[in-house]
Design a protein that fits this description.
Length: 262
Amino acid sequence: MDKQEYLSQFFKEDNGRTLIVPIDHGTAIPVPGLEDPAALIESLNPYADGYVVNLGVALSCAEALEDKAVCLRTDCYKPAYKGNVNEGAYRLYSIDEAETIGADAVMNMCYVHHPNEADITRECAELIGEALEADLPVILETLPFGIGRPDDYTVENIAFASRFAAELGADVVKTAYPTGASVEEFKAIVDACFVPLIILGGAALGDDRALLTMVRNAMDAGAAGIAVGRNVWQHKNPPAIAKALHAIVHEDANVESALRAL
């Protein structure tokens, strides 16, 4: 397949949008909800277009993932721990591993303004270069300064990070919906990012209306989809919230009708 055919595994023909569920958190932070990834994948398959996985899950859950788009996480983005050096993110795998498992894309963190920005940026560029030769899409997950810093996810910072990742050569940009941003403000970010932009879910909100409203606003602003992990598999009913998200992303449902899916 060429790059566009790979991307079509994620972005569906109905409206060109995607609903991706990242389950790649096992190397980053200790979180409940991923104890049985194969069973989780099976329960979400009716609603998810694809998954972001680490290599071990890709190998162990190949059967559950068989009919879904697979994005291989090529880095580890584990936060610094008890005084350890804060590297932000570091490459682990290459296009070779992605091709071995039959991945449809690869994903790497791209932290702008991070203390280790130089190394992170070089590693992202090297991955993009490898992917160009293989004609495999690269999704850059780009955040200002690092993960879990909502106060830094301002309109200005997210706008710069998104354009930075697109300029670097990403085929798709994954980023946070800016804290407190209006639809119009986010639309300006989407319009300036000349490749498809998808939003991440971040930490579990525990508020279905807030999550669905954020996703509805992102779709109204022109986002190409979502990549929501913890807000799905840490939900009290993961398939139900996935169904509600699917209704907004693929059926253009409003928040109230999506809530009824719960």
